[in-house]
Amino acid sequence: SRGPAAEPTHALARGPVVPPTRSSEGFLREFLRELQYGQGVTLARSSPNDQYLAMARAVRHYLMADWLETARRRREHPAKMVGYLSAEYLLGRQLDNALLATDMVDIVQEALAECGISLDTMRAQEVEPGLGNGGLGRLAACFIDSLATLDVSCVGYGIRYEYGIFRQTFVDGRQVEVPDTWLSFGNPWEFPHPEREVEVNFGGHTEQYTDEDGRERTRWIPGWNVLGVPYHYMVPGYQNGVVNTLRLWSARATHAFDLQIFNSGDYAEAVRAQTFAENITKVLYPEDSTPQGRELRLQQQYFFVACSLKDYIDQTLPPDFDLKRLPDQIIFQLNDTHPVIAVPELMRLLIDDKGMEWDEAWEITQKCFAYTCHTLLPEALEVWPVELVGRLLPRHLEIIYGINERFLEQVREAFPGDELRVRRMSIVQDHPFRAVRMAHLATVAGAKVNGVAELHSQLLRDKLLPDFAQMYPDKFTNVTNGVTPRRFVRQANPALSELISEAVGPGWERDLSRLSGLESFAEDPEFREQFRQAKQANKERLRALLLVRDGVELPEGHLLDVMVKRLHEYKRQSLKLLHVVTLYESIRSGEVAAEDVTPRTVIFGAKAAPGYHMAKETIALINAVAKTINADPAVKGRLAVAFPANYNVTLAETLIPAADLSEQISLAGMEASGTGNMKFALNGALTVGTDDGANVEIRQLVGDDNFFLFGMSEPEVAALHASGYVPSQVYADNPRLKRVIDLIASGAFTDGDPGRVSAFVDDLLYNDRFMALADYQSYIDVQERIDAAYADTEAWTRSAILNVARAGFFSSDRSMHDYLDRIWGAGIRL
Ligand code: BZD
């Protein structure tokens, strides 16, 4: 039951939630109260962490009335809701986001100044919640931001990992992972709700029984269970009075475990059980593209979707709700296949718990889910061994078989006699081992299936799931990704934001199409000068940060060439490295005079999955090359390489606004979309990129003159594959490339030790799965054009401004409108 036992008698207790006064004095009062009564310290004795926690809580007060009011409004006017199911949310720091959403920066700055505290010091205290690997997790964070800003009813469901993505350090240039202890100094942004805990079952077996009406039924007798405790996070819209909720689940041992302690007297054994339960949400898996099929990961996936469905059905819907109407109330968006086990879970709830018949349950289920695919790499598609699913979730395996049986009947009906097709499409594969193909399950169950950029959605239909596209042509659609302009322009780039506001007026943060108003300013020399000054200010801010953060001294006046993203062979950091070594070699060999070279600093940022050997070798080689080049007086002032460790959202916010050149150089047909590419364009960097993912759309919008395209197109890549690609031949035929690879192979960057580079070199020469060598010459050529283009300052600035003016499409607000139009359908109110 909720609410007080008796009607309150005092007016204060009856009244609405009163937000604190919006003034620096009002904030000061909240801050000091939190410091003294919350933290239990005086200002004089408080540490920066005390101050940060107190001020974060004080900021939170200004969102609370809106949060409660948004929840009340959504309860009283029930519109269809989006349940965003994602195993990852790469949120980034919360403080600035909250200050911006409440428009409190100036007020807070003034109040803190009265205490002798700098806002920047407070900002630096926060450890970002790194509950994601990369693009997929960051996309989820952008989407919930946009849904709040658009006042769409949405709950984000996910996992509260105790340890997020590892902190990357370098030891002798090699990546060493350190646990991310983001919770160790306290987390002022979350609200635990232990009273809303739910039970989640695992293991055991199923049995048949006959119910009172004589119907044959199945029940699941679980072997063990854990509790899920929800932690709520505020998701504020941008200065619009809306605050949605992100609900992250944390695993606890059940009370049954406590009882075992009591009964068995074996305390140590009982504590082990406790630890076992809590392991489920202990750590984020750092693999971003090669799922390892680990039992704990399937436990995580089932844990969070079981918690979320149960929470929604039992706690969010009214008690007497008729579940036939479920599709009118909610659409669960599946962020990749990670939450797909929710499909058999909903079937189980409807059939076993609510007594529905299969066909009715399936009709409902198919309307409640939609699936977003984020990859094109076949090895990234999740499959779960049947043995494992059967052991962990025996009832779900039966339901999956039931879904598959009926589905394959339909395939046979639609394509009689085509047993090969039946085997290709089956949700359960036999080879190379019996396993559940989660993407097939998602595609069969989902009302819609979408890719994340036009090209990706096309390739999804043509190459990854062609049989399904043939069978269900109307299921497939595209929604091109987007990024939130609040965090990635307004917050990350105040200098540019001010310029934009002066030029096109206020409000562009919520309607990014207004950036088109900048178009004419590209022709205005005075505006161009101001634009350059903003870029310069951002470069200086980056210089200052890297100096204290990494002890790195960036040279001044260089073209800033930035490649930041997860380390993966398909993204081709190796190709960028070949370019760096090419520049170096051409100066060293005297082929070009140092003074004729456009001064350039190349910045890398990338984490490698801890078990991904080649990716870690690449990191070591980048660091080795950087060390050699930065120490060589022959290239001093002309070429520098920096690789700050632990690239994350926080670093991105300073790095991206400072960049001149954005590296988006994946092999065409491999990068589903990319979202960093959008952030760079919106911050006035020019892109050097292949015709891949959302690069295609960026180029179409900003225009060929303002984008540096190179490399093979996807059809060309396919043709080269088909005709047989021999990288060693490319090497043999290109003297420049040969010199570069030979230099690396000689050990010139590894203290004369060729052994440390042989894995890298051999792979390029004899494997090169992602065809870096095939695109090498084209890449070198385009980089030469870039050097020349950068020398023409006015033309470069003009192009940079046009990138900003024409990139408004890449707001995640637009992505959300597209999901509403193409996937979520009517009934979701704006
Ligand atoms: O998703 C990325 C794609 O590689 C990008 O092209 C795309 O822009 C973004 C957003 O759609 N995919 C991921 O980031 N994938 C993962 O992080 C991931 C994590 C766990 C398991 C598998 C993949």
From TrEMBL:
The keyword Transferase applies. It holds the Pfam family Phosphorylase. Keywords: Carbohydrate metabolism, Glycosyltransferase, Pyridoxal phosphate, Transferase. PROSITE patterns: PHOSPHORYLASE. Its EC number is 2.4.1.1. It catalyses: [(1->4)-alpha-D-glucosyl](n) + phosphate = [(1->4)-alpha-D-glucosyl](n-1) + alpha-D-glucose 1-phosphate. Allosteric enzyme that catalyzes the rate-limiting step in glycogen catabolism, the phosphorolytic cleavage of glycogen to produce glucose-1-phosphate, and plays a central role in maintaining cellular and organismal glucose homeostasis. This is Alpha-1,4 glucan phosphorylase. It comes from Kineosphaera limosa NBRC 100340.
